[in-house]
Amino acid sequence: MAEAAAAAEEEPAWKRHILRQLRRRDRAEKARFLALVQAYHRLLEKSSVVDHFTAKLEAQSVDHPLGSPLFSSAQDTFSYTRKDVSDSGETAESMQRIHKGHVMQLQSVNGELAYKLYERNMLLRAKEATLEEQKGRLAWLSGRLSALESERRHLRAQVEGLSRAKAALKEEYKALLQRRRCQDGELRRAAEKGLKLLKGLLQGKADAAQQENERIERAKQARLSKELKKAAKTPVSVQVEPEKQDTGSRNLPEDENGEKLRSRPFRSASASSMTLTRYMDVFKGLFDFRLKRGNSISNVSVDRYSCLPLCAATCPPSQVSDVQEAHASEVNAIRFSPNTSLLATGGTDRLIRLWNVVGGRLESLETLEGANGSLTSIDFDPSGCHVLAATHNNAVQLWKIGECRFKEILTGHTDKVTAARFRSTRHQVVTGSRDRTVKEWDLGKGTCTRTIHVFSYCNDVVCGDTIIISGHHDQTIRFWDSREPRCTQVIPVEGTVTSLSLSLDQMHLLSCSRDNALKVVDLRMHNVRQVFRADGFKCGSDYTKAVFSPDNSYALVGSADGTLFLWSMETSKLEATLPGVHRSAVNAVAWSPSGTCVGSVERCRKVVLWR
């Protein structure tokens, strides 16, 4: 008992509570049926006794007379019955009937009690089954509780381990944070040092370029001076025709002595009458076109160049005139000079090739080197003397034709520059970049004068007299006024804008987009006037260039399969397709200012001249 009590004390409280509840319910159920069971047992005993004596009585009444010893013993046994019968005067038969009634009544009561007992037994079995089920569930819950307790202990150990790891990580994070702050300070100092070094490098390059230009200028001046000295030493003979007298036509005036004066013949000045200094001044004024950086530009007639329309009627291209292997890799840009037959191409090999178009052939003229990255765009200044190129190295570079080394570099973009254009003067430049900015530059000072945040990747830029138009990756064309800081107009299109081309009269804008369509925008109404589509035309990349013809009669673009597509502006119909020459996607096309020839470049290094 002591061991059972100790085991009971070791059991959990909830187990002891369940056992007490089960014992209490067992006692309550037994107390309800205990009296009924005892009464049932007594009735069974009485019924068996009555059956026994009734059988004996029947046998005695049939086989023995009333005075037999068996009957006398029965009378002794049931003396109270005989006494009642003798008192009431009833016979044995009536007593037998009474006993039979009692037996039947007892049998019916016995049957009812047996049925009730059966029901109680069934209920007891159901309760026992429920109890067994509850015991099984209790055992399962006990096992589950033990498993959960062990899992809880395991999880608590894991939590403690994670807490320790968290504390260690927190300490490590604090150390790393402190280290990061130190490295940020070092990075900031290194960036400042790098910026100083970059400025010094750029200044050194500028000084080197200036010294080279001055050396070339001094060499030119020395050569010119030598030639002028040689020319000054050469004698020049001047012949004067004799005077012809005409006495009949006019009367000559008289002098003080009354003599007729002869008209003095005109005598031209000899070349030797001009001094060497005068020659130097004249030729220096003729040959010195270089403007010093930092000087203000005040004479508009000197800096502004008017683009005279050289084309009266454009001839649409129909056949290949020449094919050249232009570059060592992909060719991205092509541009004609505005007033000469010069053609420039640029590609990923960081070179600008200059070609002279003579008799329908391309003659290699010059190669401009020194680009810091792959070239994405090329443009000539209005005079045709300078070439501007945008590069993947986040910079814009300027070359002067005739000088192999670049003359100027413009840095300030933080991503690759996709477009660079001259404005109406050769001292103003507009650039667009994938850093979501458009910048205006002053080449006279070499500085950025304005930065426009354009909200999306800029793929191309064109310039009017007072507006800047930019095409973007978010399928919009935006208009910016040079005199206002905000966007003045937004025109949505159905695809990423890859190129923009402005007509010479600045009344129409041609855009090419990745939805495989060209759209003509009316700049007076700021709406899309025409849409050009064709079966087979597919825009090959995000920098595919389309152009207007010089007289604004046609729109030209190259497809991804190497075919050129030509639409008529008047009828809005496809005028011609030029397949079979390019073997890869055409990146850009250009139309000569005279309207007689077209140039196209592709990804596989070729430049094609069409007539």
Description of the molecule:
- The chain has 611 residues and is α+β, with helices and mostly antiparallel strands.
- It folds into two domains: 9-161, no CATH class; 320-610, YVTN repeat-like/Quinoprotein amine dehydrogenase (Methylamine Dehydrogenase, Chain H), CATH 2.130.10.
- The protein has seven helices and 28 strands.
- It has helices spanning 2-10, 13-63, 69-77, 79-88, 92-233, 276-287, 300-303, and strands spanning 320-325, 331-336, 342-347, 352-358, 361-368, 375-380, 386-391, 395-400, 406-411, 417-422, 428-433, 437-442, 447-453, 458-463, 467-472, 476-481, 487-492, 497-502, 508-513, 517-522, 527-532, 546-548, 554-558, 564-568, 574-578, 586-591, 598-602, 606-610.
- The strands form seven sheets. The protein has a four-stranded antiparallel sheet, with no helix packed on it.
- Helix 2 (13-63) runs antiparallel to helix 5 (92-233) and helix 5 (92-233) packs antiparallel against helix 6 (276-287).
- The N and C termini lie far apart (120 Å).
- The model is unreliable at 64-89 and 240-309 (pLDDT under 50).
Secondary structure topology:
Elements: H1 2-10, H2 13-63, H3 69-77, H4 79-88, H5 92-233, H6 276-287, H7 300-303, E1 320-325, E2 331-336, E3 342-347, E4 352-358, E5 361-368, E6 375-380, E7 386-391, E8 395-400, E9 406-411, E10 417-422, E11 428-433, E12 437-442, E13 447-453, E14 458-463, E15 467-472, E16 476-481, E17 487-492, E18 497-502, E19 508-513, E20 517-522, E21 527-532, E22 546-548, E23 554-558, E24 564-568, E25 574-578, E26 586-591, E27 598-602, E28 606-610
